[in-house]
Amino acid sequence: MNNTIEEQLASMRSSLRRQRLFNLALVGIAVAAVTVAATRPVGDATFDTVTCKSWKVVDKDGKTRIGAGTLADGTASIEWADRDGKRRIGAGTLAGGDASMRWYDKDEKARISTGTTSNGRAGVTWFDKDGMVRIGAVTTSEGSAGVTWFDKDNKPRIAAATKTDGTVTLPTTDLKPKP
After folding, report:
1. SS3 for 126?
2. Helices in 40-171 by DSSP H: which ranges?
3. Residue 90 in contact with residue 77, Cβ under 8 Å?
């Protein structure tokens, strides 16, 4: 019987040593976790590079204010929204090399549009509140440039241009409105 008690005491001592080592390891892990949490700022991060197919920036209410993305065809775009979630600015590039940017009013109607094409053209268009083109300006890859003013029915009324040879044109159409 003496052997059995001695064996039991030896087993309990061994178990107690394992339990102490386990507790010591657990305390070490807890201290390491607290140290990491205390030294790492919550909510702020700095990265050298972020690689993704799209991203968005949200405001305090969770509304998307800025969104950007790419498509498999090579298109890339970014949009900015106002605090009501309405699109106010959009910019993008197409796979073929065209690029554009638009500004929208509070009702999400395009008011100004700019762009360049892969063939060297660049232009700016101004729209009225009803979405009708009112002024258009363009430059070509050959070096000519022009501006056209449109009436409320989208009919060209005045145009001014310079050609590559320096010729200036000022064609107008019936400057007097019809009754």
Report:
1. strand
2. none
3. yes
- CA dist 158 and 9 (Å) reads 107
Q: Tokens for 43?
A: 């909510």
Instruction: List residues bridging with 92 in a β-sheet.
Output: 77, 100
- End-to-end, the C-alpha distance of the chain in Å comes to 126
pTM over 0.70: no
> Which of these, 67, 107, 68, 103, lies nearest to 86 by C-alpha position?
107
- pLDDT tens profile 140-165: 999 899 999 999 888 888 899 999 99
Neighbours of 79 (CB within 10 A): 19
- H or E stretch covering 2: helix 2-39
Place of tokens 């065209």: 98
Concatenate the DSSP letters of all residues of 7-48 into one string. HHHHHHHHHHHHHHHHHHHHHHHHHHHHHHHHHSPSS----S
Q: Which residue has the tokens 């100004």?
A: 112
CB-based contacts of 133, cutoff 8 Å, min separation 6: 125, 126, 127, 150, 154
What is the spatial distance between Cα 14 and Cα 34, in angstroms, rounded to a whole number?
Answer: 31
pLDDT single digits (tens) 54-85 = 899 999 999 999 999 998 888 999 999 999 99
Long-range contacts of 57-64 (CB under 8 A, 24+ apart): 59/83
Which tokens belong to 157?
A: 């009324």
Contact 111, 126 (CB under 8 A): yes
